[in-house]
Each structure stands twice: as C-alpha cells, then as structure tokens.
Amino acid sequence: xxxxxxxxxxxxxxxxxxxxxxxxxxxxxxxxxxxxxxxxxxxxxxxxxxxxxxxxxxxxxxxxxxxxxxxxxxxxxxxxxxxxxxxxxxxxxxxxxxxxxxxxxxxxxxxxxxxxxxxxxxxxxxxxxxxxxxxxxxxxxxxxxxxxxxxxxxxxxxxxxxxxxxxxxxxxxxxxxxxxxxxxxxxxxxxxxxxxxxxxxxxxxxxxxxxxxxxxxxxxxxxxx
Length: 225
Known about the structure:
Elements: H1 2-22, H2 30-35, H3 39-42, E1 64-70, E2 80-83, E3 86-89, E4 99-106, E5 112-118, H4 125-132, E6 139-146, H5 155-163, E7 177-183, E8 193-196, E9 213-219
Antiparallel strand pairs: 1-2, 1-9, 2-3, 4-5, 4-6, 6-7, 7-8
C-alpha cells in the first residue's frame, strides 16, 4: 500500500510540474522556450540602413550619376573611384598606383572612357599632360590621390586642373590628400573637391594626412563630344 501511495503522489507531482511548464491546456511550449531564451535575443534587431549606388545613403535624382571617390591612405591602402555602382579604379582591379589616379567618363552616357594612374614622385609629368590636354567638352574627370600627388606637378598641370574646376590644384603639395571631380568646359569651380595638407602637426598617419572620402550626385551633361 505504501508503494502504491508513493507512486500515486509521484505521478501527481509530475503532472503538476509538466502542466506548469507547458502553460496549461493549449499552452504548447512557450514557457519552456522562455526558460532558455535570453532577454537579448528577444529584442528585435534594428533594420539595416538601405544603401544605394556606390553605397550612397540616398538615391540620386533622375539624370544624375552617383559617385564615390576615396583617396589612398598613406602609402598602404589604395584609392577607389566608383560611378553608378561600378568600380572604375581600385586595388582589387589592380589599376591604381602612387600619385594621381584619374578616370575619364563620358558626361552624357556615364561610360568609362579611360582610367590611368600617374606617378607624381618618380614619373614623367608629360604623360599626365598628354592624358588631360585633349579632353573633349563634357568629359567628367575623377581624381583620387595616393601617397604623393604633387611633386612632379608643374604650372601647366595645375592650370589644366584649375580649368576643370579645381580650387586646390594650385596649392597641392607633397603627400597632400586630394579628391576631385571636374569636367571639361565648366564655367564655375566644382563643388566636388576635398583637400587636406600634409602637416606633421595634424597628420593622421606618420608622414601622411588622413584619407578623404567624397560622394554625391553629378548631373548628366547635355552634350559631350
């Protein structure tokens, strides 16, 4: 009889415990799940911000080209030039180098014409002059510096960049950081330009200033030849 009573009591207690864990009739397994669920995992994750072409936080208006230009960091990380979600120049594409990295783009279609890197420390500045002298009206010019953009620059080079809309080309110096977007035939100075001087008092890296990153939307040109 004692064994029977003990068995009955044991079964009854087991039933009560199971009922509590299951949450009663129709409760399923929520309470069991709650026991093994941490408060952190129950918080809904914040939705990620949507990114648009070239990583821009907002889409560009119609008839505009989305771009992002990033200068090199010291002499370690290469520059990047992105247009309409297409990487025109980068270390991954293996078409960047020390000096000035320049991509020429058709201002109407947004198609890449040519992309080249020019060594402004040990290279020949005439190679750069031959590249930017014959530009056609409406050609967009994307520029990103890497390491040293200015040692080989002469007066003609600075004048040509100024005519493309640059404000800072005249004062560009050894190991400055510079990003710029201009165009052949512009009447005013370009709103798309950033420049940081190389200064031992403010440099982010030893011997180099911080890298620059610039993004925006460029209106398509009405004509280009």
